[in-house]
From TrEMBL:
Residues 12-271 form the ATPase BadF/BadG/BcrA/BcrD type domain. Signal peptide: none annotated. The lineage of its organism: Bacteria, Bacillati, Actinomycetota, Actinomycetes, Micrococcales. It comes from the Bacteria. This is ATPase.
Length: 300
């Protein structure tokens, strides 16, 4: 008698950020494919570009039946936002159970935490938390026109503003200003105005956030002020979420900026511990791997 066929479960996890999208395909918890494409977040790219990047993602992850999709993305603030992304994904996974969440949910799950606070510090910024009673709270995550303080884009923009203020005050260009001019291939700060309002996008300026930490290391006081303001903002918003939920942690921090800037990590860890927050951790793996944790918990 032939052996009975064992049913397998295929899960696809998607982390759709402001700069890139990251996807992983698992069969019965074993990763079999991983891919990265451009952003499919319609707050950052057009709907057409988002559709194209999602198509590229599923093509790269390979053919075959998909049972579940867990997709985290910024800008998922309403049921309509979730449905729009779900519809884009369903074209490539028509038989799948598709769950769309704010990308901060992936960060908490990637930290193997069911309750606590998740922080995104990437191109944009957001804080989301959940307590044992299931109550949720958030701060920020409103997009670059309304917020995104302490993010990569915000730091890039503040670097330009600092450079322009020095220029307007007829002060010598400092180390941060020098790095900004060099990175943008311009010789005078006033050229940054047209560049900023031209064809450059948020990703372009977010990618210049490391200049702030480089200039701080060289003693630039303007760069130090930007870092101080970012840390102070995070203390405020995490304090708000902590108060609303009545919890002190854990705090799981992800996003490209939060995961890859040691000085920022040190400053945040010290400042957040100073207001009584606990279990402060910086992701060691990409947020997309939180999809496997969520699916394994049977959340969906």
């Amino acid at each position: 008698m032939p052996a009975a066929r064992t049913q397998t479960t295929t899960l696809v996890g998607l982390d759709i950020g402001g700069t890139k999208s990251h996807g992983v395909r698992w069969i019965d918890g074993r990763m079999i494919a991983e891919a990265k494409t451009g952003s499919a977040n319609v707050q950052n790219v057009s709907v057409q570009v988002a559709v194209e990047n999602i198509a590229r993602m599923f093509e790269a992850l390979g053919p075959g039946r998909i049972d579940k999709v867990v997709a985290g993305a910024g800008g998922i603030d309403t049921a309509a936002d979730a449905q729009r992304l779900r519809s884009m994904i369903a074209v490539h996974a028509p038989e799948a159970d598709i769950e769309v969440v704010h990308d901060s949910h992936l960060i908490l799950a990637a930290g193997h935490a069911s309750t606590g606070m998740a922080v995104i510090l990437g191109t944009g910024s957001a804080v989301w938390g959940i307590n044992a009673a299931g109550k949720e709270a958030r701060a920020g995550g409103w997009g670059y026109l309304l917020g995104d303080e302490a993010s990569g884009y915000w730091m890039g923009r503040e670097s330009v503003r600092h450079t322009l203020r020095e220029f307007n005050r007829e002060e010598p260009v400092g180390e941060l200003g020098r790095l900004v001019l060099e990175a943008n291939h311009v010789s005078s700060p006033d050229e940054l105005i047209g560049l900023f309002h031209g064809d450059t996008d948020r990703r372009y300026w977010a990618q210049q956030s490391p200049l702030v930490f480089q200039a701080h290391g060289a003693g630039d006081t303007g760069a130090t002020r930007i870092i101080d303001e970012a840390v102070a903002y995070m203390v405020t918003v995490l304090g708000d979420v902590s108060t609303v939920l009545g919890i002190a942690g854990p705090v799981v921090i992800g996003g490209g900026l939060g995961m890859h800037q040691p000085l920022y990590q040190q400053r945040l860890r010290e400042a957040l511990a100073g207001i009584g927050l606990e279990g402060i951790a910086f992701l060691g793996e990409d947020p997309v791997f939180g999809a496997l944790f969520l699916a394994g918990k049977g959340c969906f």
